[in-house]
Amino acid sequence: MKRFIAAAISVLAGVAVVAGVAIFASATKGSPPVLAATPTGMVDTPDGPMNSASLDLQIYPNNSSEVPGPMEGVNAAYASQGWPFYWPSTTLEVPANSLITVTITQYDSGGQLLNNYWSRVHGTVDGTMTVDGKTVTEWDPDKVGHTFTVHQYPESGQPYFFLSVPLPANGGTAVGNANPYVTDPKVVTFTFQTGEPGSYVWNCEFPCGDLYQEFGGPMQQRGWMSGTFEVV
Amino acid sequence: MADTVTPSEPPEAPTNRPPAMHRLHEWLSRKYVRHVLIITVVIGFLLLPLCWLLLAAMNQSGAPASGIMEDIEQTVFVFTLVAIPITAFVFAVLVYSLIGWKGRSGEEPPNNDNPAIRNNTVAVVTWTVVSSVLVAFFVVWGMLELANITANSYGTQPINGQIKADDVLIVNVTGQQWVWTFEYPQYDKYSSDILYLEKDRPVLFNVTSKDVVHNFWAVELGVKIDANPGAVTQTGVTPNKEGIFNVRCAELCGLHHAYMETQIRVFGEETFDSWMRENGGGKTS
Asked: Is the ipTM of this complex over 0.85?
């Protein structure tokens, strides 16, 4: 009888540990809600008529009463850290075989890139982007705030996809942990073409986080400076 | 004078020990020996297909695209083949011990006063010699293959700042959370997120990192080397097959480590040169 009770207690203890881990993982999980690109009709391209869509994003240096920032799962615990973040979501969805125009309004400051490769525009139509209406192919690597870099997912059978644009920094002392935010943010627009459906990730390549090499904090937690990018 | 008696050799002690072959025959005729040997053969034949499955699994991303990777796969295959009979024998003894010598219901447990287990010289010599031969085989094979792989990997390494072969393609590899970038100093510092190589042309990789430790793993080329921040590590290879292959990060490096992969595209000479020219990478040296 003693043996049976000991075995039963052992099994129950094991189940409790596994359940505890599962509950903790479930409670701390949570991705921002899906932000789907808005269809904008058919456009003419050199390859013929094509669907198009647009996506609007903002980058803030910290959360505020106007913009709460990511609050899903464990992100709620980080909300008061003063981390920069993409808004309104980092879980992005765009249609396949379409022209996608992204507009990013950048309120944050910046600095020097560690790798000048990210100061150039990669993967957009004509390899260009516009900054406050001006068309450019690259940006000063010493004055970059963030990057929007979409890259490959380790899954065979989906098209190779790579896209990276530098997002200019806002200068002056008015940025950083500013509240209210600067009134003259940098507005970056770029267009790219999607292929067949696939799953990708994106992240910022400018070290804008905490701790070692400023790659901690928001750089290591989805919902802030990285997320998923689904072509559907 | 007393007679001296010369001591003679003592007569050979009589023995009933049968000849070695007879003893071997008698040993093989024992029930448990036959059963263990049969189980060994059965498990061995069951494990053989696993050897091929292992190779198939290794080739899931594509067959080897360099001499180095061919050597690595051959080594894994041969070592697995050699390990099969050993594994089969160990499992056979295990299985027979669990089933063949299992206590029956109602049997008394063995008497602790049974005679002590005695040494068996033949058995000790056999397993010592067999183990030594196997280990020696692994060591010699491994060292020869390692020397071969090292020669192929580092045959392109600069010595006193001089590249050994004139036609070596130099690629500066940079790892950064969580993307690889490749720069070609001989082609106007053309840079890309895809690794472009030329078939049958030796390539020297200067590998570094901009943040944490990554590991540059060109899977089908058999190249794997750490990318350390603030330092440059070097290795090389000669692709021997055209096609599309994979680069992955083999060092846990943060949130999107699992996504840190890209493509290798190996072209023929003409295609490589024209591709570089068309993409702004004019040859400078």
From this structure: no
